[in-house]
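Problem: given the chain below (354 residues), write out its structure.
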Amino acid sequence: MDTCTRLFLASVSCAIVLCLFLMPSGKGQELRHFPVEEPVWGNPFPGLGNVAPGSAPPRSTMPSAVTLYAGDFGMENFSDLLPTPISTELYLARFPSNQRTGSFQKVNFNTLWVPKSGSNGLGMTELDLSAMFGLPLPTVDSPLLLTPKFSTTFFNANHWNETFYTTGLGMMWLRPLARDKFTLSLGASIFYSGDFQARASDSFRFPAHIAGIWNFNPRTRIVFGLVYADRRDSYNFFPMAGLIWTPNEDISVELLVPRMRVAQRVRWFETMAGGGEDWLYTAFEFGSGSWGSKPIDGRVEYRDLRLLLGYERRTPFGMMLGLEVGYMFDRKIEFDGRGGRPSDAVFLRLRSTF
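Solution.
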């Protein structure tokens, strides 16, 4: 058993322990709906979680764009550090809970495993750890989100094996405008991505983005913007565009670039920690990475397309556990201009938030 497989199995073992804690303690209850018009309870950092009813007066009558996008406008789903407007906090904002209300918001741990298959196979294992903090700039209605990150990526091929590391800080500022009908998002990051031996010019990256979020109506959000990925291939700049549509409390349709997802809530239940939800979803996404490498004296650029099925369990206090299985295709890896195309592969990904 190679090192990559051992690390992935260790991650799965930790997830099983968490899953036991999140297991329902009783029968599933009748689904409770909290429509968009429900108050969003008072919070020192709007959109970064709610506090229990009665502890503070309601501040608004509908979730703002900050509520919908603060949670995952970071990098937790992509190895390439790209800002992705995927609304993982959308439904937690629908019901009162005891989420964190201070500067510290959450910790994310994700692991991806791609087995090597065939003579042209390329195995991958990614371990990704990040946290999120929110600061008022200049007020709590315009938060500055800070996301320190560390990840490790192991590549395993027939004639090539290498380990890369990524560490740094992502920053994003959200500014609601026009009475919360429009939100401006500005992001910039500084990251080291390499093998700790490559030249600094090949390893340091400065991705950035500018985006607008328009609350077209209480159930529709429109996103548009531009991402700078700081790569050396044709994926250096690309648009960020699409919409999130929630026809009801049980369905979320996220038609976004570079990730599309359709999710269905299938159960509401009680756990030892309180009420929770089970979700099933299908998604199509773009995965990529860029690292400095000493052996090739340049950068390694990687990208692929992914089609997946996922399951997600959410409970109060910001805890989440998700498992995804998918198919990875149209893979390409370049070594400072010289490229190859690994064979297609299946993959497993474990996602967790605390």
